[in-house]
């Protein structure tokens, strides 16, 4: 029986896979890997309840690669490289992330893998598919586009993986999934992974899988124990000020992922943070694929320190040691909370997450608390008195009295006292040479006596 003390060597993986793991410094398998790898190696169907960051990609990718090695071929003929494993993911980011992991695990083998998702030109993807690949990672919509153009044949699939199945259902992919499953052979291995297990997911598993082995590494809908979760009670007008205070208090190098519910507000907040001197960027569904990938790459490399995102980024974003996730908005769907904060505390690392709760969010908060079985103690936060230049940040007009603090440095020119001298002609305001002589006469009689312009400019006469 395998235990938590299990090492990778106990799986008897091919030495080339083991070498890749050594290079990645994977020393001991994570609990989901301990539980899922043996049945997958045996060809069983597996239903895995695993939250993000638990190492579930390797849990299904390693045994699949091991099984596919049997068919490894050095031939350049596409016929020798049929699609044998199909991995479906809900978002482009997750698909991309899985593809990167598969590529790393398979780097010393002749197995070919590729990723296809929407928002990119189809032609290069068609070229890759026509050349032949054993492991295909795809989002459902784009895969069906390729089925339509007959650039892919799914009748050779032996292992089908539905990753983040709950999310695929949430995103309305059920009809697409049904079409894809119908195109795959009936005799196949089906692996289904999901962070949360709703009755719909269980129904999906029942219709797509055959006598699956259930593996569960943490209570379903649980959040990682290594993540410290806090929440602030704050009204909308003060969220920006609180955010900036928290960001400034973050240890360097800062790497913070901030979640919002609206695309528009996501871009707005990123711009505001840039104005405040942070290296920030935004990703959401309206950005082009290239913009999203560039922003993600910058965040991963550290050249962007704060990434403001909608839930599109909650999946597939794997940054080793991401220390902090901020829920600027409470998610509408409590299960999204689990996914959002799953971006930190990955693979046993510690992390922290902070949520801003407005009075209107109390109902959603209660739903989250019920789901994750954790009660938040809402921290109160006192907004400091705003200074004028911070008005846009604080979201309110600062008190007028602060406009000229007592000790403020004033322009020396205007602070010089007016000292009347004999040389200065104290003419009424309207009679200074700026006016014509005719005007001067009329104004002289009507204009009340006012200090000369020269006096206003510090006692110097203007000629
Ligand atoms: P995943 O849940 O598959 O997205 O994996 C989360 C992170 O854990 C990724 O950065 C993986 O590279 C890493 N990881 C997966 N398995 C292991 C392991 N056995 N040892 C160390 N890191 C791992």
Q: How large is the radius of gyration?
A: 32 Å
Number of strands: 14
- Report the top-level CATH class of the largest domain: Alpha Beta
- The CATH topology of the largest domain turns out to be Rossmann fold
**Low-confidence sequence ranges:** 390-463
Hetero groups = adenosine monophosphate
CATH architecture of the largest domain: 3-Layer(aba) Sandwich
Backbone structural class:
alpha/beta
Strand content: 5-15%
Shape, please? globular
What is the number of domains? 2
How many H/I helical runs? 18
What is the CATH superfamily label of the largest domain?
P-loop containing nucleotide triphosphate hydrolases
Strand order of the largest sheet: 3-4-2-5-6-1-7
Largest sheet: 7 strands, parallel
Helical percentage: 25-40%
What report would you give on this structure?
The structure is a single chain. The protein is of the alpha/beta class and 463 residues long. It has two domains: 8-216, 3-Layer(aba) Sandwich (Rossmann fold); 227-380, P-loop containing nucleotide triphosphate hydrolases (Rossmann fold, 3-Layer(aba) Sandwich). 37% of the residues lie in helices and 14% in strands. The protein contains 18 helices and 14 strands. It has a seven-stranded parallel β-sheet with strand order 3-4-2-5-6-1-7, sandwiched between helices. The longest helix is centred in the N-terminal third of the chain and has 14 residues, at 92-105. The relative contact order is 0.10. The model is unreliable at 390-463 (pLDDT under 50). The structure holds adenosine monophosphate (AMP).
């Amino acid at each position: 029986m395998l235990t938590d003390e299990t090492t990778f060597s106990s799986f008897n993986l091919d030495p080339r896979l083991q070498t890749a793991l050594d290079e990645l410094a994977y020393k001991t398998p994570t609990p989901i890997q301990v539980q899922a790898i043996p049945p997958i190696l045996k060809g069983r169907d597996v239903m895995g309840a695993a939250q993000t960051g638990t190492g579930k990609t390797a849990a299904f990718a390693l045994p699949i690669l091991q099984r596919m090695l049997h068919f490894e071929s050095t031939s350049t003929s596409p016929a020798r490289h049929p699609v044998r494993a199909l991995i479906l993911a809900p978002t482009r980011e997750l698909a991309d992330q899985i593809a990167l992991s598969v590529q790393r695990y398979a780097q010393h083998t002749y197995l070919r893998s590729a990723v296809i998702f929407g928002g990119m030109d189809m032609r290069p993807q068609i070229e890759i598919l026509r050349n032949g690949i054993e492991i295909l990672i795809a989002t459902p919509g784009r895969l069906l586009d390729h089925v339509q153009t007959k650039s892919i044949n799914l009748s050779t699939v032996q292992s089908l993986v539905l990753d983040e199945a709950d999310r695929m259902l949430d995103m309305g992919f059920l009809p697409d999934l049904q079409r894809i499953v119908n195109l795959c052979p009936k005799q196949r291995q089906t692996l289904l992974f999901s962070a949360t297990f709703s009755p719909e997911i269980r129904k999906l598993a029942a219709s797509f899988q055959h006598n699956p082995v259930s593996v569960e590494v943490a209570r379903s809908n649980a959040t990682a124990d290594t993540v410290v979760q806090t929440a602030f009670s704050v009204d909308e007008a003060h969220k920006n000020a609180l955010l900036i205070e928290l960001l400034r208090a973050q240890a360097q190098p800062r790497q913070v992922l901030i979640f919002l519910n609206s695309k528009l507000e996501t871009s707005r907040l990123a711009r505001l943070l840039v104005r405040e001197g942070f290296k920030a960027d935004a990703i959401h569904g309206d950005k082009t694929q290239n913009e999203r990938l560039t922003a993600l790459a910058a965040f991963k490399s550290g050249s962007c320190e704060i990434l403001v995102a909608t839930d599109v980024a909650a999946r597939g974003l794997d940054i080793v040691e991401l220390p902090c996730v901020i829920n600027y908005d409470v998610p509408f769907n409590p299960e999204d909370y689990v996914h959002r904060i799953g971006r930190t505390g990955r693979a046993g690392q510690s992390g922290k997450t902070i949520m801003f709760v407005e009075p209107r969010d109390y109902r959603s908060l209660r739903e989250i608390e019920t789901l994750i079985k954790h009660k938040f103690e809402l921290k109160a936060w006192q907004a400091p008195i705003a200074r004028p230049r911070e008005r846009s940040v604080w979201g309110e007009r600062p008190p007028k009295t602060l406009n000229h603090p007592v000790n403020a440095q004033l322009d020396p020119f205007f602070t010089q006292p007016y000292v009347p001298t004999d040389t200065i002609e104290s003419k009424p305001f309207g009679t200074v040479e700026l006016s014509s002589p005719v005007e001067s006469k009329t104004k002289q009689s009507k204009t009340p006596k006012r200090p000369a312009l020269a006096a206003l400019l510090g006692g110097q006469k203007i000629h």
